[in-house]
Amino acid sequence: MPAVPKPPVESAGSLSGAYLAAKTAQAAGDLDTATDYYTQALAIDPTSAMLQQDAMFAYLADGRFKEGVDLAAKLHDDETVAKVARITLGVDALTKGDYEAAIAEFAIPNPSDLDALLLAQMTAWAKAGAGHVDEALSQIDQTKGAPWYGVFNGYQKGLVASLAGRPQVARAAFGDVVKDQTLARTSPDAYLGAADALARLEAREGDKDAALKAVDAGLAVAPNYTPLSFLRERIERGETIEPAVARVQEGAAETLYVLGQAINRGDGRDVALLYFQLARALHPRSPALLTALAGIAEQADQLDLAISYYKAVPENSAFRHTADLQIGLDLWYADKKDEAKRHLERAVRDYPDDVRAHTALADVLSADKDYARAADALNKAIELAKADKTDNWNLYYQRGIAYERQKMWDKAEPDFKKALELSPDQPQVLNYLGYSWVDMDRHLDEGLDMIKRAVDLRPNDGYIIDSLGWAYYRLGRYEDAVDQLERAVLITPMDPTINDHLGDAYWKVDRKREAKFQWQRALVGKPEPDADQRKEIEAKLKNGLSAGADTEKAETKSSETAPRAEAEAKGAASDLTVAPAAGSTGSTAAPGGGEAPKSAD
């Protein structure tokens, strides 16, 4: 699902060349290119089982479902990949309404715990589609296994019963999930889905109070979950509410989506992607699926692909708003900065009362060093937000940074203090305020203690440790500075500023050869130092530290000596994740000084 049509890849010229190119692209997360090369390789040798296996996985992960199904049919009895092939063929049968064929394909022997749950629920949906509702419900009830099965089974049983016109059974199943908030720890998606589905059921049955109660149960677990807030507004307005699922295919897609979200992290992300793409074959316009796929694309740095998924989110969906904001952030990451700013400025006009729109705009403005406009956007966000809510510490923190960068310390300091009042143990804020005090020769003991607390809270953060080392340097405690800066370099070895700082500290303790080595490393660091920093480092390599270097830095605090927690601070104010799902994903801050916005996970 690429954002724009792209020309076909170059011909690999040979089977080995095409296969190698496909594997290389696949390892890099570029599935679009990988599948093109697999197609070339299969054209040269359509009989290789290994090639068919690898290509099937790539086609399915890339959303090329038809090509994946064609290969799955050939690999139906292949011991290596039969499970995935049969699940794929079962999903294909469901898309065609061939429910008996789906039931047969899902009868896979000796499944793992996760597979057993998936296959049982997919079989239940196929039985419901075939008109065997009692068998479908019994299938779910009889699926026993790991302790974590309960929340998934309760949610799916409710969906099956609701679609089959059995509201009492559905109400009981959803209610068993919703009344136990601890189940949200196993699967936030299943828990919130059950609250949403129960609310829809009650609204359709004419019980508005019960519907709102179900919504509130979900919001008690996830106060910022947009779909439930959106549903609450619609119920209160008396609108006609659609059922949670309208077709068997949508229900089966929800099974794949919810289980995929439960494993959508670390090594499980590849399997989650496969689940999501199979689900999309069943429910192509599912906004939750499209959002999840966009998140995985972002993790793979496939930003155009992510944007295309967000753009496909239906306009009338509760997810549309978040998709619009995330598009703006992804445009920034894709180095389309002017377009990103225009997009988010339009979002602020479209959603003038939404805190997230203003914070997303503030993120990109801060990243673009337009701190005055960023502060204005954050002023509006703070005005709209519940100012004393704990979660809003980051709004004050971000605005404090914007003021500090404009040298408006009289406004910045109260914001940092307010952030700590709301959330006292935020290492970024402790570091930023503590370092700023030390750098300005104010509240030295308290400032140093704050930085030490930040290090204690985040002992493996090279940037915060760098702040502690540089604070010691500014205080003339050069041996202590060396100890901390050496730690910081071990944790973050390629950062140019940390290496530059260590070089300065080495020079002060008369380790001048090592100082020059660190400065040389700083010049080839990642990200590359900017022009001013490069010029300064080159001067030190030539002449060493001049006698006035410390005085000059004390008089004008540059971005080089700014608190290094800012790498994480950028975008902390944005809460663009649609749901606090177990596998929710989002962009992460760019390395090197935080010159990029991000969405919060």
Key features of this structure:
disordered C terminus, 601 residues, mainly alpha, single chain, 68% helix, 0% strand
Structural account:
With 601 residues, this protein is mainly α. It has helices at residues 15-27, 31-44, 49-61, 65-74, 82-95, 99-105, 113-129, 133-141, 149-163, 167-178, 183-186, 188-204, 208-221, 226-236, 248-262, 269-282, 287-299, 303-312, 320-333, 337-350, 355-367, 371-384, 393-405, 409-422, 427-439, 444-457, 462-474, 478-491, 496-508, 512-523, 531-543, 549-555, 566-569. Helix 7 runs antiparallel to helix 15, helix 22 (371-384) packs antiparallel against helix 23 (393-405) and helix 29 (496-508) runs antiparallel to helix 30 (512-523). Residues 551-561 and 565-601 have low confidence and may be disordered. Keywords: TPR repeat. Residues 527-541, 550-569 have a biased composition (Basic and acidic residues). Residues 579-590 have a biased composition (Low complexity). TPR repeats lie at residues 393-426, 462-495.
